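ARCHIVE CARD
CATEGORY: sequence design from structure
SOURCE FIELD: tokenized fold
FIELD CONTENT:
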């Protein structure tokens, strides 16, 4: 349910009540001081998917870059062309991005569509338009999304002492995200590590789309559109990794071009596995089950298969028609109520199976065993997360890393290690690596702000404040799209 606020919102936001009565027709002047002709209404309007009364009390009459520190959450931001801030709104933290009105409204609707398709994106909260300062000068609109808890931009990940293969694991996660987006017809148009947030997912990462400004949703994508997206992604990522290398954040043995090529290879491998038509003989039906199992292992459910015989009737053609991610996570959610990432779910399910075998409950219903496992194993372990780290690490990730740490300790000692002892050792020796201190966050955010440019230089100056579709404007893109 959407709500729109006009004159009442102006008063609640601290703007002069008389301003709410001014003519709402388009006014002259500049928007946000960028030289873009303003077509904003004279009344503040908040369009949101759900109502949070605390939104009314924010200082919308001030440029986002000047909002008071007591409203801001001290979280690392990624590099963006626009001013972005994390803001406390009641018990929630929202990401605020200051952009032109039409771009904000368009991105908000795109994100809502992607959310309905159950894709990994940030959650859109609302759009704030009609902002003016106290002297009546127009300000840019603001797109509001929910901060993705436990996520980090890629530069924050490299600011810590991570494994040498971190770059490859991030690329693998991005390849999965791109395949999922392309399967539903989403053309991104500006793929980069900067436009993604990453969540730890057991030994891997899960990538979430955070910036859809240049995206477009189609019924299906042509091969040319997909390849052009991939070509942009490869170019952007190689450049970002070179930038990390120049800042001495990238391990010296990482080849930036090789990592960029890995993205293309991983994408094509996964795409073909999910979409190719395979040819089987009538006595090879077991291969169909093998293919479905392979997709399950990759984290995908096959909801519908298309099977038809060749003209001579001697072969059967099989192609997945509907493929959906989240095979293990849905199974764990059904058994335990835990809503976690795919690789975390797979690891927790493995531990559940081990618990079932070790407690001689092989003949018991899995749902009953899962209830016992939650009560005896999982919940007592995650309750041991120190309070100061509960905003730093997900319970499922904590549990996974405890299992890893316990195995390492047991191998070193030559015997099993009690769970409580493993947790204590992990908290003392490993968990502190998760913390970014204030100086690290300030440096990351200073770097993020250094990339901010005005909207006039970021977008074509069309009447609606947004350039035409890049595939239409870019001659190289047009060549790709026609292939």
């Amino acid at each position: 349910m959407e709500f729109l606020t006009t004159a009442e919102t102006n008063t609640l936001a601290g703007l002069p009540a008389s301003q709410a009565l001014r003519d709402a027709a388009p006014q002259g002047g500049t928007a946000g001081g960028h030289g873009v002709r303003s077509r904003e209404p004279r009344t503040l309007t908040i369009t949101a998917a759900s109502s949070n009364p605390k939104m009314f009390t924010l200082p919308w009459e001030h440029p986002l870059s000047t909002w008071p520190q007591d409203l801001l959450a001290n979280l690392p931001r990624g590099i963006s062309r626009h001013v972005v801030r994390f803001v406390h709104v009641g018990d929630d933290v929202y990401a605020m991005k200051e952009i032109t009105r039409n771009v904000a409204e368009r991105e908000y609707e795109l994100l809502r569509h992607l959310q309905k398709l159950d894709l990994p994106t940030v959650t859109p909260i609302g759009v704030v338009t009609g902002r003016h300062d106290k002297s009546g000068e127009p300000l840019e609109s603001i797109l509001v999304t929910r901060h993705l808890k436990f996520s980090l931009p890629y530069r924050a990940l490299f600011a810590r002492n991570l494994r040498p293969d971190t770059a490859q694991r991030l690329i693998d996660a991005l390849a999965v995200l791109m395949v999922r987006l392309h399967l539903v017809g989403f053309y991104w148009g500006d793929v980069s590590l900067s436009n993604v947030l990453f969540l730890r997912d057991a030994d891997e990462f899960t990538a979430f789309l955070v910036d859809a400004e240049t995206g477009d949703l189609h019924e299906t994508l042509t091969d040319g559109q997909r390849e052009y997206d991939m070509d942009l992604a490869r170019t952007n990522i190689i450049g970002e990794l070179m930038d990390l290398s120049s800042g001495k954040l990238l391990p010296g043995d990482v080849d930036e071009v090789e990592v960029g090529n890995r993205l293309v290879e991983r994408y094509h491998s996964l795409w073909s596995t999910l979409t190719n038509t395979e040819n089987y003989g009538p006595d090879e039906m077991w291969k169909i089950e093998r293919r479905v199992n392979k997709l399950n292992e990759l984290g995908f459910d096959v909801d519908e298969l298309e099977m038809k015989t060749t003209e001579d009737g001697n072969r059967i053609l099989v192609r997945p028609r509907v493929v959906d991610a989240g095979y293990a996570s849905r199974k764990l959610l059904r058994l335990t109520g835990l809503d976690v990432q795919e690789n975390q779910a797979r690891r927790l399910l493995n531990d559940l199976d081990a618990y079932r075998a070790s407690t001689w409950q092989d003949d018991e219903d899995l749902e009953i065993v899962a209830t016992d496992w939650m009560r005896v194993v999982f919940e007592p372990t995650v309750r041991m997360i120190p309070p100061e780290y509960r905003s730093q690490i997900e319970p499922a990730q904590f549990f996974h890393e405890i299992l890893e740490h316990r195995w390492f300790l047991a191998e070193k000692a030559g015997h099993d290690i009690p769970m409580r002892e493993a947790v204590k050792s992990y908290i003392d020796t490993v968990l502190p690596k998760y913390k970014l201190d204030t100086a690290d966050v300030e440096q990351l955010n200073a770097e993020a702000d250094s990339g901010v440019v005005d909207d006039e230089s970021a977008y074509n100056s069309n009447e609606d404040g947004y350039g035409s579709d890049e595939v239409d404007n870019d001659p190289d893109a047009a060549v790709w799209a026609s292939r």
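CARD ANNOTATION: Residues 223-246 form the longest helix (24 residues). The chain has a mean pLDDT of 79.
SHELF: design records, drawer C
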